[in-house]
Amino acid sequence: MPISFLSQRKIIHLSGDDTVNFLQGLISNDARKLLKNEVIYTALLSPQGKFLYDFFLIPWRKNIFLDVAENRAADLLSRLKMYRLRSKVEIEFTDDLCVAAIWGNNSVSPIETSEYKLYQDPRLTALGFRIIGKEKSIKESFKNFALKDEYERSRIDLCVPDTTDMIVEKSLLLEFGFEELQGVDFSKGCYVGQEVTARSKFRGQVRKSIYKIIGEETDQLPAIGTPIISGAKTIGELRTSIKNIGIAIINSDDYEATKNAGETFLCNGKIVQIISPNWR
Question: Which of 92, 104, 152, 264 is the most buried (most CB within 10 A)?
Answer without folding.
Answer: 152
